[in-house]
Amino acid sequence: MKKRGLFFSILNIVFLSGLPMLLALKSPDPKLKVKWEQLFNGKDLKDWTVKIRKHQLNENFGNTFRVVDHKIQVNYDQYEKFDEQFGHLFYKKPFSYYLIGVEYRFTGNQVKDGPGWAYRNSGVMIHGQDPKTMGLDQDFPVSIEVQLLGGNGKDKRPTANVCTPGTQYVLDNSVVKSHCLDSKSATFHGDQWVRVEALVLGDSLVVHYVNGEEVLRYQRPQLDPVGGAEEGALLKSGTISLQSESHPVEFRKVEIVNLEKYAHDPQQLAAVIQQLTAEKRIPKQ
Fold this sequence. Notes:
Layout: H1 2-17, H2 22-25, E1 37-38, E2 48-52, E3 65-68, E4 71-74, E5 87-91, E6 97-106, E7 121-128, E8 144-149, E9 161-163, E10 167-171, E11 174-176, E12 180-181, E13 194-201, E14 205-210, E15 213-223, E16 239-244, E17 249-258, H3 266-277
Antiparallel strand pairs: 1-17, 2-5, 3-4, 4-17, 5-16, 6-13, 6-17, 7-8, 7-16, 8-9, 9-12, 10-11, 10-15, 13-14, 14-15
C-alpha cells in the first residue's frame, strides 16, 4: 500500500499540478530512450482481429477493413446498406500503461442508412474487452472510446472526445455516467489528417491529445457498476481497437509507446511522459 500511495501522490503532483513540477522530482535520464512501436505494419492486417456485428469473429464482411496504399481503410463500397453492422479491428494483444498515437482522416460519403450521429465518426477503443468474448449481435466492445470526429464544414465538432460503452470514469472527483463528453479540441473540416494520442496509465489516468495539445483528461476508468454501487470495477488494461461506424475513414499510422516497464517506478514514469509530451507531433498533410 505504501508504494501504491507514493505512486498516486507523484501522479497527482505531475498531472494535476502540471508537468513542470516533474523537474523538482527527478530530472529525465539523458540515456532514457523511448521508442514508438508500429502496431500497423503498413502492409497487411496479420496482427489484427475483425469483429463486425451480426458476423462471426474474423468474418471481414464486405472487406470492411483493408490495407490500401499503406493505409488501413474502413470502407463500405461492398455494402448495400449499413444495417447497424458496427465493426471493430482489434490489435492482437492488450496493453495497460502506454501512449498510443493514430493519424486518421475521413473520406467520401457515409454509407446508406448510417445513423446521423455516425457522420464522420470513428474511434479508438482502449481498455476494451477481448473480441472472443463479444456476442454475435454486440455492437461495441465494453471499453473506453477515444472518439474521432470530423467536421461538417460549418459547425463546431471537436475530436478526441470520450464515450463509454459499458463503462464510466471519474472527472473532477465525480463519477461521470453520461455516454459521451466533448473535448476542448478544434474542429477539423474536410479530409485533412489529424493526429490523436491517448496517454493511458492503467486504472489511474487517461489524457487525450490532438495535434500535440492536451484536450481532455479523466481518472479511474471503470466498468459500469452493479448492484446499485456508485463505482464499478476499475479497468487496469485491455484491448485496443479501431472502429467502423458507417463513414469511410483511413488510418495511416497506429503506434504505441509501451510504458509498462515504468509502471512501478512513478518518478521514472513521469520522466518518460515528460519527454514524450515535450514533443508536439503534428501530422503532415
